[in-house]
Structures are given as structure tokens and as C-alpha cells.
């Protein structure tokens, strides 16, 4: 696919976020959109996601994002002609500290007001959902039966394919290398294969968002942090399906993937890179005691493999969505941390509305880039 020389908008990053934005723009009639992807579509941190989808967020805007995204996942197959592997396995949070329970109770009240189904369970009831759990040190659990999972690759490819069907151009192996500006307004993007002139550039570069922000002279507080996921050999001793189960105190979480168990130590590590993510097998030592503590039977399982990826975190753990302060025509859809996959359908919809209608139909002030630049 050759690179067009002009576009109504150029999106930097062909991950799940960039492809969703391209699809939603094209669906709304903006056909001449270009997505620049330096590697291949979906090969960035999207390929490392665990696929979890939950309504259990702390803020109204994020809960509304989840509810909107869940509606899309539910009808994904019809809209995109791809089975995204969507299953409502639920999310189960395990709580052993009073302060965590109080925080969750506050969120649950908000989640329920907005129509989400979230319930506090006793430890014994949590064990009915996952019999292999150790629960004697828990004070409660929080269960979201609406929550679930889907395949990040399937979803990204669904967005990309439909975006292309509708006229969008998604080019692979092409990196954005500079922004062109005139009088403070974006006028184009320089790439490894020539320039594209455009009045709008969207930064959807995932863990590389800060690097792309620097092309416009911005210091975006998006910090890539490494996280590992390991998987066992087939382990029928924990029969599936099980909810995505998260031990809030230790950070350990797990779910089943076919016959295998996926396990994460919940690690958060700065490795000083926004693209290359080596595995650290030493993390198995961090994982094993957390896993055996919560799931004693897992001692009998063997680790068969694993991977590591970067979660693009912001200082307050919420995404940054909006026009970049001081650079007209530069839009930010970055900093999605550990929830960019599940919020990609809503992100695409509301960003497209913002770019085409002048404002989104949902107030996105909560994600405002200015919150990190305003004086306190
Ligand atoms: C271990 C792990 C587990 C996770 N689990 C979940 C989960 O259960 N649920 C969930 O919702 N999220 C999860 N996430 C988070 C999720 O993966 C991310 O939030 C999401 O994938 C971000 O998507 P993106 O499109 O912004 O980034 P990316 O997928 O990284 O896409 C950005 C793209 O931009 C490209 N790019 C960068 N710079 C340039 C440039 N200069 N020119 C051209 N292209 C460029 C990159 O190659 C990349 O493909 C997890 C993440 C990790 C690491």
C-alpha cells in the first residue's frame, strides 16, 4: 500500500486504539484517513494484552466507556464479520484489607448508579466461583458478572479491515519521524517514506506516545512500564471457565486460556525503553509465591512460557484524550495503561465525534491533557 500525499487526518500508531479511531472516522464518512504503523498492525503493546474487559472502573467517564465498549463487543461479530472471542467470564477481585473494601464499595455505588452489575461476595461465595482459591485470609470479594474477555488481535484486525473497506489507508513499516507546523498549526507529518500533508495528526502511539509527543515539542506524562504474563501447560485441575481473578493486595491475577492458566505477578517496572521488551524469567520467582498463596493447587502446574509487554501509564492511571495544549491540530489518544484494549471501541467513537462534530457526545473533560499542565 503506497502512502498518500494528503489526508484529512493522520493517525500515528496502528494498535487497537489507532485502528478503532480510523474505523470510526471512516464510518462517519471521513474516508481519506491515513494510519502510520512503523511495524505491523496490532504488533505493539496490543499484542501483549490479556484481553480483559471490565466495567469495574473508579470514575463515571471510564464506567461509561466500559458500558459503551461492552455494547460493541456484544455485537462485534455482526458489525465486523469477525468472531472476537468475546466471553463474559466475569472479573473477581479478592480483598484482604479493609481499606480496599472501602474503596471498592465507593466505586460499586457509582457503578450501580450507572447500570453496571457489580456485587460484593463473601469469601465462601468467591470460592464457589473458583473452588481452587484459598480464601481464609480474605474479608470479601467483588464480582462483576458483566465483565469478560476478548481477543486483542481479532478486535484490532476487525477495526483495521473495516476501516480499509471504508477507504482508510493503513500503511505498515512506515514511521512518523517529524511533525510539520506553520504558525502553531499542524500541516503535515514527515515519515520514513516521505511526507503527508494534513491538518490533523492523532497521537495513538501507545508506549511510544511520549516520544511522538516530543515531535511536537510536548512532554507527555506517558510512562511505559513492563508487565509479564506466564502460562502453564494444560492444567485441568483448575477447570474452566474461571473469572479473571485478581488478588488486590499482591497484584497477582489469573484466568484460563483454553486448558492453560494465564498468570501475572502484576509487576510494574521501568525498563527505560518504549519499544523493546525483553522477558525477565526471574519474574517467575516473584510470581510463584503469590500464585501458590492464592491458588495452592497451582504448585502442581508447570510454567510453559510467557511474555512481557509495556503498559503506557499516566501519573493518575487515567488516559489522556483531547487536543494537545498549544499545538493546534495535534490530538492525543494515549496513556491507556492496562485498559486500552477494552476501551478502544468507545475511544474510537468519541474521538471521531470530537474531530468531526467539534465535540464528543460524552463529556471527556476527565481525560483532559491539561490536567497535567494546570498549576495546582
Ligand atoms: C501484560 C499486559 C496485559 C494487558 N492486559 C490488558 C487487558 O486485559 N485489558 C486491556 O484493556 N488492556 C490490557 N493491556 C493494555 C493494552 O495492551 C494497551 O492499553 C493497549 O493495547 C494500547 O493500545 P495502543 O493502540 O494505544 O498501543 P499499541 O498497541 O502499542 O499501538 C501503538 C502503535 O504505534 C506504533 N508506533 C509507535 N511510534 C510510531 C511512529 N513514530 N510511527 C509509526 N508508528 C508508531 C507502534 O508500533 C504500535 O503498533 C495490557 C498490557 C500489557 C502489557
Bound molecules: flavin-adenine dinucleotide
Total number of β-strand segments?
Answer: 19
Q: Which percent range describes the beta-strand content?
A: 25-35%
Major beta sheet, strand line-up: 5-6-4-14-15-16-13-17
How many domains make up the 3D coordinates?
2
Low-confidence stretches: none
Q: Span between N and C termini?
A: 47 Å
| CATH secondary-structure class of the largest domain | Alpha Beta
Shape: globular
Topology of helices and strands:
Elements: E1 9-12, H1 16-27, E2 33-37, E3 52-53, H2 60-74, H3 76-80, E4 91-95, H4 98-113, E5 119-121, H5 123-129, E6 140-144, E7 148-149, H6 152-165, E8 169-172, E9 176-182, E10 185-191, E11 194-197, E12 201-203, H7 209-214, E13 223-232, E14 244-247, E15 253-257, E16 260-264, H8 283-294, E17 303-313, E18 320-323, E19 330-334, H9 344-357
Parallel strand pairs: 1-2, 1-12, 2-8, 4-14, 12-19
Antiparallel strand pairs: 3-7, 4-6, 5-6, 9-10, 10-11, 13-16, 13-17, 14-15, 15-16, 18-19
Helix pairs in contact: 1-6, 1-9, 2-9
